[in-house]
Amino acid sequence: DSIITVETSIPFTGHNIEPPSRTVETSSFELLTFFKDMATMRRMEIAADSLYKSKLIRGFCHLYDGQEAVSIGMEAAITRKDCIITAYRDHCIYLGRGGTLVETFAELMGRQAGCSKGKGGSMHFYKKENGFYGGHGIVGAQVPLGCGLAFGQKYNKDEAVTFMMYGDGAANQGQLFEALNMSALWDLPAILVCENNHYGMGTAEWRAAKSAAYYKRGDYVPGLKVDGMDALAVKQACKFAKEHALKNGPIILEMDTYRYHGHSMSDPGSTYRTRDEISGVRQERDPIERIRKLVLSHELATEKELKDIEKEIRKEVDEAIAKAKESPMPEPSELFTNVYVKGFGTESFGADRKEVRAVLL
Amino acid sequence: DSIITVETSIPFTGHNIEPPSRTVETSSFELLTFFKDMATMRRMEIAADSLYKSKLIRGFCHLYDGQEAVSIGMEAAITRKDCIITAYRDHCIYLGRGGTLVETFAELMGRQAGCSKGKGGSMHFYKKENGFYGGHGIVGAQVPLGCGLAFGQKYNKDEAVTFMMYGDGAANQGQLFEALNMSALWDLPAILVCENNHYGMGTAEWRAAKSAAYYKRGDYVPGLKVDGMDALAVKQACKFAKEHALKNGPIILEMDTYRYHGHSMSDPGSTYRTRDEISGVRQERDPIERIRKLVLSHELATEKELKDIEKEIRKEVDEAIAKAKESPMPEPSELFTNVYVKGFGTESFGADRKEVRAVLL
Amino acid sequence: KEMTVRDALNSALDEEMSADPKVFIMGEEVGEYQGAYKITKGLLDKYGPERVRDTPITEAGFTGIGVGAAYYGLKPVVEFMTFNFSMQAIDHIINSAAKSNYMSAGQISVPIVFRGPNGAAAGVGAQHSQCYASWYASVPGLKVLTPYSSEDARGLLKAAIRDPDPVVFLENELLYGESFPVSAEILDSSFCLPIGKAKIEREGKDVTITAFSKMVGYALQAAEILSKEGISVEVINLRSIRPLDRAAINASVRKTNRLVTLEEGFPQHGVGAEICASVVEESFAYLDAPVERIAGADVPMPYAANLERMAVPQIEDIVRAVKRVCYRSVPLAATA
Amino acid sequence: KEMTVRDALNSALDEEMSADPKVFIMGEEVGEYQGAYKITKGLLDKYGPERVRDTPITEAGFTGIGVGAAYYGLKPVVEFMTFNFSMQAIDHIINSAAKSNYMSAGQISVPIVFRGPNGAAAGVGAQHSQCYASWYASVPGLKVLTPYSSEDARGLLKAAIRDPDPVVFLENELLYGESFPVSAEILDSSFCLPIGKAKIEREGKDVTITAFSKMVGYALQAAEILSKEGISVEVINLRSIRPLDRAAINASVRKTNRLVTLEEGFPQHGVGAEICASVVEESFAYLDAPVERIAGADVPMPYAANLERMAVPQIEDIVRAVKRVCYRSVPLAATA
Ligand SMILES: Cc1ncc(C[n+]2csc(CCOP(=O)(O)OP(=O)(O)O)c2C)c(N)n1
Ligand SMILES: Cc1ncc(C[n+]2csc(CCOP(=O)(O)OP(=O)(O)O)c2C)c(N)n1
Ligand SMILES: [Mg+2]
Ligand SMILES: [Mg+2]
């Protein structure tokens, strides 16, 4: 598989750091994998939308379509000794870390086969053996938690780094600045990835932040602004950041990206932005289409072959949903498991404590 | 009283802003008032130290000696429509806002005549009618609270500003960055005064902050570094900041200052810094001595006259202590007052609820 | 006439903002988005961005700013998108708001309302489902209100905004869309309910159920079922968890001699425990059976629908508990 | 042999750090300053700055970092200078630590200890005197320990550090300097106490007092006074508030038939309320008198010495309450 050299869409912009080169090396295999993986993510999220509408998924459901290149590009640059932690928009991050479609759909529907056995739900996916630490519902909380993972990596001398993903809305949270200061003081291998999709719920970035230049918000910490719709740019940036972090401590990567869906399922996503804006991004910056064009222009596959891949993905997703639906709801006894690792044989109670109680082992 | 023109000790350093001139106007009256007020503060804190040692003051007691120029210079630049809020190191700020020695000592000893009737204690002084909003024990909390006061000033179109004082240790608190962002978004007349005395308890600034350039830590918010041992520099900076804040919103003033005492009474203040460092500051930068020299060099008073003032102050302080000691402890019924403004006639309980209870009015 | 709880809250905010220019509202998405749950719908248009303030997602910061504004004499209404996020700001609610009037011996009053949905919603998992009633109501200096119906929502929210002290106002997302009958009196802009007073939602003589928020509706449904079996249930809608209306609770128990407490929050140190203690302290001799406590399960909220259902009280749990207090042979009662 | 609680905590930390390289300690002033209250004295010298980590005054941030490190498999001991400051970090304690093992169905365990002085000290005012026992112990996923003696301090802290779950470890500043007798067994580095088990500090037959932390000492002093008046008091040192040793409490009450609960925290939704509810649920028929509750006054902590004394339980309050439960004529008991 020969090396293909591609220019990123736009140059990187650095803050307190010399940015990496625009020239990225890739391969036929990598580009086709990017295409397939992103198309799978896209299809999975569209399917989740339908399942939600048919009431098989409950509560919140935050979809990632539009932002796929961030996960894909990041994974291409790192290993599974490196850790990732994110917020509630976590389905595709989970998939990127080696999770399966069946586990995803089963969790979304609250079934035993789910990655959290149906107990976590949409916002709480994990895959610890591959370095994925969730799946967090409280805006901003994952940033100090991620710095804690990086603390662990440094403590154990693991020569690995942690990527902590947060939104433009989360970027104003005070705990981020607290964690950044400590990460810088202690040279933690912490990479803060701001997925700037330009809205925190219904609030445009400039209405929530006096300075929306998130890659500069680390002040004394270096930063890089990256086209988050270009998987190869993301890959380049993450590689660069990993090297930096292992040597010099924290760095911020601002990924300029976009979410096509509303914030969660109750948000139509169209009251605070124009339809033109959305379709403009789709037409000009879509991360999958960018790779499709590269594949075609380098003649790595035909249009028909790519369409066939997409058809195949559609089938895989449908099959996964069918399988997930077959998985039963959790056993009632699961109500009381996992409250503790070690329960000391104490009693725990249900709503009617005289009728439902359990001994925690 | 003719105008006297003085140069500040060192130039101001600006961040994102053109600093004001080093040339400050003052007068014989002002300089003598500075001398008298700072000497009173100094004497009051030394006396509190003794009272603590004779067990008349309990709990924490954070002394301000060394930092007097910050309060004095600030007050000279503003009016009492402007608000001040600070942390626990609040005795002298209270005095600067028009509080009395008797109220101070009485509060420190937990007596009825105290500014909080003995219920607040050392960390919780207030003088709302003169724009002093406390006296807060939780590091960092006073900064958003102060921005809230500024919010109120802007909401009411009062054309006044709020000064919120915090330490170098507090400067790393996340809530500060959150409040700063909102203050900048909303153009609040908020002046963040970082009293950098170079230690947060036993931690030197550089051990707690990756960037100890606190006047720059607002990133997109302008800042000014000020010699906080020079009352005239402080006055100049506060005047400048007030004008700026009324027109353009928040600004940070970093006051380079020093606390002579330990952090609180249990800290000898000598394990994390050298005695040479302390005596060096005393000799070269003491805020009272700086004014004394100015007074003498401009021949506004003789050495003897200044000594007499100090003697007078000593007497005043002793008399205030004597008077404060005469004030009784609060009435037992005060246990239940001020829990609410409006208690709706509900019952409240003492430790033994069958014996001690009260109806809250 | 009927009105949803959402409209009741919205109209109460609207009327109080119109009556007092010091009242303003701040929080995430309260303005241009019209509220995450549309409680503030229309207010931005009517009162402008100075009084309907969209904030960044920085709870500690904006809560501190709200409290500071209250120190200054404004009357802020701070919306938490849900009370789970109030944990980021809880230091300001407790240390900056609840304690200031006391520490300053009455100089610094804090007329502020913290409001938003509290407790379990549907399918939102462990981090978005906690009930904070018992925590906040343990703290002197705070008042804690828990509306159930549209009458409660209007009357208590107006009372909270007019009150000179900090009030924690705990709504319930699943009630927002529910409709309740409202009289002309309730709809009048002068309408206001007293803080600290419970409401007997249904009179009965055999057993008392105490409940608040959504659980009041469950208690009423259980009472209806039980009445068909000849058990007469008195349902107390607590309305205020702090001050707690101990007098009303004890009066009812002295009449019925039996008590079931009901809440969705975690059981340990919960509202039920306090009510049990209060009745034991004041009306021990009147109790003909042990107090029964129905509460949320003692586990983080699971996502799966079947487990979630087990984790919060259901009507059958209430019915079962009532039957136990009424029929079970209680040694003390037997010997009495 | 005697040992102070301070030395007990210090030696427990030292031994666990020496036994397990995954254990590290972080917090404000824990290193170079040797601890604000000198609990970590000498540890920096012995284990170095990687394992004794001074932090800036940023509780939310460093607690989050601690929890993240625990996710990764380390065993952090996070010191809060006092638990009052844990409110800035409480979201991480509840949402990031307590709930993760459950939400992940066991994938993400959180072996972490949060420790520091809790509750009232002396003369430190309203913002520095709150007791957090009842809040934290209401939350499933947390364990909450409250040592009283040097034995407790050593045995429980070692248990907490070895435990695979998040433990909130509530110390008391006023106990740090107190000395208690310690046996060779207690001093052995293998010594460890079981989590969730109360200790009968003093056996008695007329009345049970439950207490934790500093109040255990007060209960013992009250018991001594009462014994001279012929009242035999059983004193239970709860040691663990979550899990609460309901079995031990109920067994004692079934023996003595009388209960006084004692705590320094706010009364509403407190530990006493829960214990009262538990005894009413499980041992109602055994109660010969209403449960008496002694707790902190329902007000923010005042500074003045006389008011402060009134705001926390005193030995005479306990003595009085015990006499009430023992001598008061109780209608139910009379008819039984
Ligand atoms: C502390 C906190 N406050 C509020 C919320 C509610 N909330 C969930 S997501 C969200 C918007 C976050 O926006 P952003 O950080 O830009 O991430 P995005 O959703 O765009 O990926 C809000 C307000 C929350 N979960 N946690
Ligand atoms: C949130 C919080 N954490 C810890 C403390 C304990 N504490 C009180 S003062 C202090 C040091 C603050 O230093 P700095 O901000 O520099 O102010 P200075 O005392 O020097 O005036 C600490 C750690 C506290 N009061 N609040
Ligand atoms: Mg966003
Ligand atoms: Mg300092």
TrEMBL record, chains A, B:
It comes from the Eukaryota. It holds the Pfam family E1_dh. Keywords: Oxidoreductase, Pyruvate, Thiamine pyrophosphate. Residues 264-283 are annotated as: Disordered. GO terms for molecular function: pyruvate dehydrogenase (acetyl-transferring) activity. One of its GO terms (biological process) is pyruvate decarboxylation to acetyl-CoA. It catalyses: N(6)-[(R)-lipoyl]-L-lysyl-[protein] + pyruvate + H(+) = N(6)-[(R)-S(8)-acetyldihydrolipoyl]-L-lysyl-[protein] + CO2. Residues 37-332 form the Dehydrogenase E1 component domain. Its cofactor is thiamine diphosphate. Residues 273-283 have a biased composition (Basic and acidic residues). Its EC number is 1.2.4.1. The pyruvate dehydrogenase complex catalyzes the overall conversion of pyruvate to acetyl-CoA and CO(2). It contains multiple copies of three enzymatic components: pyruvate dehydrogenase (E1), dihydrolipoamide acetyltransferase (E2) and lipoamide dehydrogenase (E3). Tetramer of 2 alpha and 2 beta subunits. This is Pyruvate dehydrogenase E1 component subunit alpha. It comes from Kingdonia uniflora.
